[in-house]
Every structure is written in structure tokens, then in C-alpha cells.
Amino acid sequence: MSKIATLEVNGQKHEFPILVGSENESAINIKTLRSVTGGVTTIDPGYKNTGSCESSITFLDGEKGILRYRGYSIEDLAEKADFLEVAYLLIFGELPTQEQLDKFHSDIREKSIVDDDVKKILDAFPKTAHPMGVLSSLTSALTAFNPSSVNVDSEEDMYNSVVKILGKFPVLVAWTMRKKHGLPLDYGDNSLGYVENVLKMMFKKPNEEYVQNQILVDALDKLLILHADHEQNCSTSTVRIVGSSHAGLFASLSAGISALWGPLHGGANQAVLEMLEAIKEDGGDTKKYMAKAKDKSDPFRLMGFGHRVYKNFDPRAKIIKKSADEVLGDLGIEDPILDIAKGLEKEALEDQYFVDRKLYPNVDFYSGIIYRAMGIPTDMFTVMFALGRLPGWIAQWREMRLRKEPIGRPRQLYIGETYRPFMTIKKR
Ligand code: SDX
């Protein structure tokens, strides 16, 4: 491929370098576009064709359904690694040695106490508050209890902020859920593994001994790995752009949580379950929902289907679908919702509308079925997505700051009123 792109504007030809990435992707570098063309910019709603950065963290190939974190395939990581290993890999770029992993975990445990005054903030929320709104607020509130700025050029300062948020975030997740259900807010047990401790903090009952279920630990560990990063998705781009103003890490993460909440993004896993429940209530009438999804006059979309990048199977969806069968089988749960999901998937994959638009199940289509089998309330599904995505957000924020990326400030094409003289109210 030529290394130069030529653009003709107003009869003038301009050349722009074509950058080639390590996976042979190409990008036209238009950094000089405005200056060489006298102010001409580009427009690309939703940034469908626009790269915001160069990154070494995650590689996706949407046509081939490939997903790799720092070069390791998602299939290998989901099968052979644990979530804390993957978090370390995403953030620091290499899989940890046993010694590095043990130190990482011990440092996280040490920083896993949340200031008790945070409970006063939690008390102020009504029980009807959506957990994602609560979690975003509590994450931002952490800034008040911890230094907001991070000196990214200091390895020590950066490391400390990483272990601090990885230690405190699961506590906020557990407290957010327990508060809503009127359960006491406490800590888990630092002698446990990271994911084991998350489950214990979430589900421990005050009046009985907590018993770990390894099936649930393994299932959650795998789900968190599958959600850990996904290059420049909506919430990660939000974390990056907020951090690009040099806002603190916790403030940037809080913004990312809000972006993830949307039903077109991470909120889809909750919307999928609600959709499948509605289909079940309708006597399993998937055809009605397929018709609604294809009806342009109907805002309804088949939740859990389609993806901005994957125009083939989302590799994560394949792994989660298999895991859903295993987990429900191991737990001896017969969930008709799973059968409805499989029927809907089969129908959609054979439907011309979906085939023409390359709409396949995405990460959110089956994940809620496992969360439900684990006893996680539906309105906590997107919180679990945020727990998984946390290391990816941190890694991307750190990379953006270490690369000293400029503050994010897109241009626009103004289509409003041209100049008009002010008219006093008497004349309006
Ligand atoms: C996540 O970006 C990431 O990486 C995100 C994520 C991550 O890990 O961070 O992978 C997580 O957010 C997964 C996506 C979860 N969202 C959903 O499941 C919600 C349902 N999906 C759609 O809203 C949609 O597919 C999006 C938002 C995911 C992608 O939207 P795009 O890329 O903007 O595509 P589009 O809206 O331009 O759709 C193209 C066509 C349109 O039809 P036409 O105008 O060409 O006739 O496909 C149609 C759309 O109407 N379409 C759907 C559809 N998704 C797209 N029609 C019905 N049901 C759907 N789900």
C-alpha cells in the first residue's frame, strides 16, 4: 500500500502520510489538514472512520472476530489466566511473574479499605437509584478521600493509584448492591482471591457462614477477563478524553462508568435480560420482537446484537455462550431464558435483515444469563461490566497520559444562524 494519501481540495492537491500499525492496519495522518487547506476539517458522526489515538493495549479485527490484549488472544486468556493477571497485563504490558502477581495482589489488599464516610454518601441515595449512577458518584467521591492528581511520570505514584482503585472499587460495587437490598456494608476477607472476595463481599449474609462456590468464582473470573478491555469503545474514549484535560484518574473513571451505563453500550446486558423476559411473558414470541427490531418506525433494537467493530461473531459472545451452558448445567439450573436466547440468535442469524447488516450476538447477549444464574440482580449487570472493564480503562488512561496526548477537543461544522443584529425585546 502507498505510504501517501492525496486529497484534492479547491483544486489543490495535498499529501498526507499513511501510518501502518503492527497488525498492518492503515491510518491517514491528517494532523496538518486544517493548516494546509486553509481550515477544512472532516466530519465523522460517531467516529466510525476516525482513529483517536495510537495504542498498544488491545487489538480487534472486526471482520475476523479477533480480540487480543497486549498480543495474547482472548481465548487463551479466558482459558488460562485469571482476572488479576489480565489486569496486570493490560496496565503494565506484560503477564506478571508469580512474584509480581503476589505483590500486586498484596498491595491491592492493603489499599482495599474505603473511608467509612463514603457510607454517608451512600446513605443519601434512595433505594430506587440505579446502581450505575451510585457507583459513578462513589467513584468520583473517592477523589475527595484520596489525592485526585496522579503523577503519571512517577512509576510509584501511578502504581499506587492503580492498586488503590483496584482495591476499593470492588468494595464500592458490593456496598452499592447491598445498600439497595438493605444488607449491612462490610468487607470481605483479604485471605481470599480477588474474585472470591468480590463474591463474598456481594453475597455474604450477616447471619450465616459464607460458603464459596468455585463454579461461580470461575465463571465470574472469566466474565471479568472477557470485559477487561475493548480498545476505543464509547466508555474508554470517555475516560481518555476526560483524562486528557489532566483530570484525575478517579474522576475520569467516574465519567467512563456513566458512559458505559447507556443501553447502547454496557447497559445492553441489562436490556437483553429485560427483552428476553418480555419475550417469555409474550409466550416466547420471538417473531414479534424480530419484526420490531427491523421496523424503522419502531425505536426497539434487538439488544445484545450488532457491534460497531465486529461484523462477525464477537469472540467474547462465543465464549460466554459456551460458559452459560456449563454454568447453568453445573448449577443444575434450567433457565427458559437461555433457550429463548438461543432461539432468537438462530432466527436472527438466518434473517436477511441481520445478515445484510452483519449483526451478530455481542458480549452482552449471553452475559446476563450467567449473572442471573449467579444470583446477581439485573440492575447490577452493567456494574459487573464496569468491574471487568476497570483495568482496561486504567490502562488506556495511563497510556494516554504517558504518551502526553493533547487535550481532546474535536472541531465541528457550524450549520446555525449567520450573524444577525440584536433585537430588543420590544421589537421581537
Ligand atoms: C458494547 O464498542 C465496543 O467495543 C462496545 C463493547 C465493549 O466491549 O466496550 O463491545 C460493548 O457496547 C456492545 C454493544 C451493546 N449494545 C447493544 O447490544 C445494543 C443493540 N445494538 C445496537 O444499538 C448497535 O448495533 C450498536 C450500538 C452496538 C452499534 O451501532 P452502530 O455501529 O452505530 O450501527 P448502526 O446503528 O449504524 O446500525 C447499522 C444498521 C442500521 O440499520 P440501517 O440504517 O442500515 O437500515 O444496523 C441496524 C441499524 O438500524 N442495527 C440494528 C441493530 N444494530 C444495528 N437493528 C436492529 N437491532 C440491532 N441491535
Describe it.
This protein is mainly alpha-helical and 428 residues long. It is built from 18 helices and 6 strands. Helix 4 (98-110) crosses helix 7 and helix 7 packs antiparallel against helix 18 (381-402). The chain is globular, with a radius of gyration of 23 Å. The site of s-citryldethia Coenzyme A has 22 residues, from loops.
How would you briefly describe this protein structure?
This protein has helices at 33-37, 74-80, 83-92, 98-110, 118-123, 131-145, 155-180, 194-203, 214-226, 234-243, 249-261, 268-281, 286-294, 315-331, 336-349, 352-356, 364-373, 381-402, and strands at residues 4-9, 12-20, 26-28, 58-61, 66-69, 72-73. The chain has 428 residues and is mainly α.
Oligomer: single chain
Q: Give the cofactors and ligands.
A: s-citryldethia Coenzyme A
Which structural class do you get from the secondary structure elements?
Answer: mainly alpha
End-to-end CA span: 60 Å
Question: What's the average pLDDT?
Answer: 96
Low-confidence stretches: none
| Shape descriptor | globular
Return Rg in Å: 23 Å
Largest sheet: 3 strands, antiparallel
Major β-sheet strand ordering? 1-2-3
Helical stretch count? 18
Secondary structure: helix percent: 40-55%
